[in-house]
Specification:
By secondary structure, this protein is an alpha+beta fold. It is built from 15 helices and 29 strands. It folds into three domains: about 240 residues, Bira Bifunctional Protein, Domain 2 (BirA Bifunctional Protein, domain 2), CATH 3.30.930; about 130 residues, YbaK/aminoacyl-tRNA synthetase-associated domain (YbaK protein, Alpha-Beta Complex); about 100 residues, 3-Layer(aba) Sandwich (Rossmann fold). About 25% of the residues lie in helices and about 30% in strands. Strands 3, 7, 8, 9, 10, 11, 12, 21 and 24 form a nine-stranded mixed β-sheet that branches. Strands 16-14-15-17-20 form a five-stranded mixed β-sheet. A hairpin with a 5-residue loop joins strand 28 and strand 29.
Length: about 575
Amino acid sequence: MRQSRHLGKTLREVPKDAQTAAHALMLRAGYLQQLAAGVYVYQPLLLRTLNKIAQVVREEMTAAGAEELLMPALQPRELWEESGRWERYTNIDGIMFAFKDRRGGMVCLGPTHEEVITDILRREIKSYKDLPRCVFQIQTKFRDEIRPRFGLMRAREFIMKDAYSFDADEASLEKSYEAMRQAYHRICERIGFRYRAVEADSGAIGGSGSQEFMVLADTGEDTILFCDQCDYAANQERAQSRLPEPAPDPELRPMETVVGEGLIQVEPLAKFLNIPVWKTTKTLLYEADQQWVAVMVRGDCDVNEIKLANFLNGKSLRLASPEVIRKLTGAEVGYAGPIELPKEVRVVADHLIRNRVNFECGANRTDHHHLNVNFGRDLPQPEFGDFKLAQKGEGCPRCAGTLQAARGIEVGHIFKLGTKYSEAMACRYLDAEGKSKTVIMGCYGIGVSRMAAAWIEQNHDEKGIIWSPQIAPYHAHLVGLNLEDAAVCEQAEKLYRDLQSNGCEVLFDDRPLRAGEKFGDADLMGMPIRLTISKRTCEQGKVELKLRRQAQNELVGLNEVIPRVKALLAG
């Protein structure tokens, strides 16, 4: 491709709305153009990279036994009502583009395709002989993000690969899930990511278990926790941890109410009461759908709202406002406690506080705290669950190790759906004995466009993008200098043709610009190999070769260029 005809101008200044390195560099290098908030034009260079990523994904999906199809982006409301997800996806916190068509029917632009694929397969599957099945597609998805940001990281329109498996039983699902899991590892390894596979929350997709594939990057939206001694790793939303549970006091003490003016932080409160921080209690009030919930955790812990929402099985969860807190407790924020709350408030507690004796909690009076509180005597036993947010430095839940933390970008997510959709949508089969059984499903997603952004977050420097040969738009960037000289121009044109005929994808900078501008653009665009031909190199019968990842360059004989480039690409 001649750069003089290339669509996508480079920018010298960093765009003001760019929040991450990938977003800024894609805009500056002419890979991306914003059409509206969260909606982008994939310029030619980016599209070449996306096609290469998609091809790696396609090859590994096919090798794992999945068959490709293409489903409609436009989906009818009725299918989503069958699964019970229409309301959740279209309520105030929903992310679905939904609207009426001209016939008056409600439709949506698909954010995902569990309903559609279940409808397709329930028409195909009749007997156990029709199982297993696994299909995938690579398609544009639409999600009405409240705050689209970070460029392709959280866009409202994006390219995704989604695959779905259909099996007769749990054992068969395990085989399908493992095949996809291994395929995802091969995809990440072929592209060249530094990544981790971690346990994850299943979210609105549902199911009994899931894993995320996280590209490690300081700018990642997610925190992942992993053990320094075993292979345990999880998204912080899902992670568990181990904390020391000191021996309880030998006997119960009388409950008393203590005035601690302005003491709403646990460390100063514990010091004032002369008790360890783990004996203090945080009681937070939430609105969960149409009910009020008080959740109790140890003072040295924070609430994991994802775990809480899953426990409550609700559609929405938000912290109560200060006005609501005053109405329910009679106190200002920071003094809520579980004793004598209104009957309509449901009380739940993290399991780590179950065995505490003589603990502290808010007294539902401003500046007042209860001391020496005990379950069964001073308040009823609440509902217990895992509501604590795991943190770096806490104990691994599986061994004696310690949890470490890193930031990650989710590029893939695989789910064991079970019968969530097949049961709701009557996707059934007859077993060998003629009995009707529900199909067991799995779901497997990869963000193709997000992978491109994640690569740049992980592979860039102050000059620009650093692509690998596997997914670079072009293998080489041929920079022609002094092209007004007929001999130099002829040699540059010959090298351009020779590279192409030998299978090297090359972007030829034939523009009438200064050397500094051309080199700056080459570094910004990030092709793996830069080849420079000029009057000086032609006089020596050589070409300057530089790898994007390296600072130094070298002169290579004209007859050696093609073999050297081939060797570099093969390596």
